[in-house]
């Protein structure tokens, strides 16, 4: 017998970026397991990134429910065009923020709790409560961020006897950017209270990393499952690798995610080895923070940078498959140990070596080592990082730069969907 599952998400095509991929793929594969997904999303969302090509991946028979949402980001544009970057996650260093930017961050953090989509909670709850009853929905899944969508699940759970799964693609109160939102003590307390309510009233919690599971286990006794992001079969074919020794970062490179340890190593190689300088190119594919660009310039690397900007998902896959090295960077912070970027899994099946820099004890280190897909360095390992780059360049020169990955199948979207199906059927 087919089960109907309602999925409440903010990000849905034509939204671009990593937030849309997870549930787009689940919706693609759930019907193979006799589960009918019904997606509920905004009809007029103010997405910071658009990728119209992702519309082609929506299954033909998918049921998509849409309702309008009121968002304050449209008003933010009246302050300054620069404030648009905040909705993309790019927050400047404190001493470089304009007065409008500081004001916008304060308003965002203290007047829109838990986030700027909070006004969608009440109308969505009213609409979905009726829909769930009319169409015999057994299970509701909310996915955040934005974490205000979990409040929709919370209110529905309080009204109806349905199973509710709260899916956290990122942590809530421990995520790094919370510290940049100029939260008052009252706002911090409100966030904590809402987080606790959601974690203790959902029937099951899903997270994308072991560290987030460990964090949430201190807040709730409800069952928690780790279902990571993953990779899907890609139709993109690339026949030849880049001729240059390209090190490519795909995705947003925020100002806080600025690995000076890497820039220093690359700068030294450029100055020490003419052959390296002749062949080296750093591809930055996606949004890049101003502080990162300034840092690259200070290390004398600007002339080696190919700043591509945002591209469609299919174009990003091309860069992944043709690059010599794939670069993965995470902020050097205790708060980011739990972050496992979705692009890691696409990197792993691109058959190119991964060079990762992140905080000591990061979950990404475990995955990279288990799958034999690259090397990970924390921010204290300058000498080891430099030695690794030297060896990678030598392998490139000898035409022997390759990967022998193992155990990738468990991160396929089909395998991950099976985990979700088992969870739904056991509620």
UniProtKB/TrEMBL annotation:
Upper taxonomic lineage: Bacteria, Pseudomonadati, Bacteroidota, Flavobacteriia, Flavobacteriales
Keywords: Transferase
Protein name: Glycosyl transferase family 1
GO function terms (MF aspect): glycosyltransferase activity
Glycosyltransferase subfamily 4-like N-terminal domain residues: 108-234
GO biological process, alphabetically ordered: lipopolysaccharide biosynthetic process
Gene3D superfamilies assigned to the protein according to its UniProt record, in alphabetical order: Glycogen Phosphorylase B
